[in-house]
Write a structure and sequence with these properties.
single chain; binds magnesium ion; 290 residues; 39% helix; binds adenosine-5'-triphosphate; 4-stranded antiparallel sheet; alpha/beta; globular
Length: 290
C-alpha cells in the first residue's frame, strides 16, 4: 500500500503563526484511512489552530496539507468536499432557523433536494432535533446548537470528519449519542479526527492518539503503547497534602516501590491511564519550555 492509499491526511512541516506566537510549530502528521485519531493537548496547545489549518478554514504560513490526495492549497474545493468540520465554537448562521442552516450546508455541498430532505430527516431524528427545526438558532441552548452543527457537518457524508471538542457542553445523553455516531461512522470507513479534553473519550474511541503541546507534536501512538511508554503500572501515594505518581514496567516493581515507602496509607497500585501519560508528557514539555 502506498502512502496515498493508507493515509487520508498528510501534514508536512505545518507552521501557523499569530504575530510572534508559533501556534503550530513544524507539525508532521499522517492520519490513516478509516482510523479514529485523537488529538490531545492542554489549553492553548494548538489543537483548534491545527484543525482549522488542515480543514481549510484558515490559511497557514509554511508546509503542506493533503486531504484524500488533494493538496488543500492547490485544490481547496476538492479537499473541502471530502471533509466535514464540527468546530469548537459552533458556527451556525444566527439569522436562519436550524432547518435553513441545514439546507444551506446541503446546498454548499451540492446535495440533491430529495437526498437532502431524506438526510436531514434521518439525522434530525437521530439527534432528537425535530422539534427545533423551525426555530431560530439563538433560541437553542449551547448543547442543542452543537447537535445541530453536528448534523450540518455530516449531511454530505464526508470521508473525513473533524470534531473539535465535540462533546464539551453536551449532556450525558448527547455525549453517548455522539460516541455511538463516531463508532458507527468508523465502522462505515469514515476517518475521524477528534480533539478532546476528555481523556476517557480518547481512551474509549481512538485507534491512535497524538499529544500536542506548545504547537509541537510530543507523542504519537496507540493509547496502550503510550501508557507502556511511561510504565504500564502506576503507584499513586500521598506525600503530605500532595498526591504523587510513579510508573513502573510491571506490578512487581510497583509493589517493591510501594513497600519501600514510609507510609502505608493512601497507596494505590493500578494500571497507567492515558491521563497519566498526558500529565507526564505535557508536564515535562512545560518544564522544557522554562
Ligand atoms: N486568532 C488568533 N489570534 C491570535 N492568537 C491566537 C488566535 N487563535 C489562537 N491563538 C493562539 O494560538 C495558540 C493556540 O490556540 P488554539 O486555540 O489552537 O489552542 P487549543 O489547543 O485549541 O486550546 P483549547 O484547549 O483551549 O481549545 C494559543 O496561544 C492562542 O492564544
Ligand atoms: Mg481548541
Amino acid at each position: 500500500m502506498n502512502e496515498s492509499d493508507s493515509d487520508v491526511i498528510v501534514i508536512r512541516n505545518l507552521v501557523k503563526r499569530f504575530g510572534e506566537k508559533m501556534a503550530v510549530d513544524h507539525l508532521d502528521l499522517n492520519v490513516h484511512n478509516g482510523e479514529i485519531f485523537g488529538f490531545l493537548g492542554p489549553n492553548g496547545a494548538g489543537k483548534t489552530t491545527t484543525v482549522r489549518c488542515i480543514s481549510t478554514l484558515t490559511d497557514f504560513d509554511e508546509g503542506s496539507v493533503e486531504i484524500c490526495g488533494h493538496d488543500t492549497s492547490k485544490d481547496p474545493i476538492a479537499a473541502k468536499n471530502c471533509i466535514g468540520v464540527i468546530q469548537q465554537q459552533v458556527s451556525l448562521d444566527k439569522d436562519l432557523t436550524i432547518r435553513e442552516n441545514m439546507i444551506s450546508h446541503a446546498m454548499y455541498h451540492d446535495i440533491r433536494k430529495d437526498e437532502r430532505s431524506a438526510r436531514i430527516a434521518e439525522l434530525t431524528e437521530y439527534f432528537g432535533l425535530a422539534e427545533y427545526l423551525n426555530k431560530p438558532v439563538d433560541s437553542l441552548s449551547g448543547g442543542w446548537k452543537k447537535r445541530a452543527a453536528i448534523v450540518c457537518a455530516m449531511l454530505h457524508d464526508p470521508e473525513v470528519l473533524f470534531l473539535d471538542e465535540p462533546t464539551s457542553g453536551l449532556d450525558i445523553n448527547a455525549r453517548r449519542l455522539l460516541w455511538d455516531i463516531v463508532k458507527s461512522l468508523h465502522k462505515r470507513g469514515t476517518t475521524i479526527f477528534l480533539t478532546t479534553h476528555y481523556i476517557e473519550e480518547a481512551e474509549a474511541l481512538c485507534d491512535r492518539v497524538g499529544i500536542i503541546d506548545h504547537g509541537k507534536l510530543i507523542a504519537l501512538e496507540e493509547p496502550k503503547t503510550l501508557c507502556d511508554s511511561i510504565g504500564s503500572i502506576a503507584v499513586e501515594y500521598a506525600d503530605g497534602e500532595k498526591t504523587l505518581y510513579r510508573y513502573f514496567r510491571n506490578r512487581q516493581e510497583a509493589q517493591d516501590f510501594a513497600s519501600s515507602l514510609e507510609t502505608e496509607s493512601d497507596i494505590r497500585i493500578r494500571k497507567t491511564s492515558l491521563e497519566d501519560v498526558f500529565v507526564e508528557l505535557t508536564g515535562r514539555s512545560a518544564e522544557a519550555m522554562r
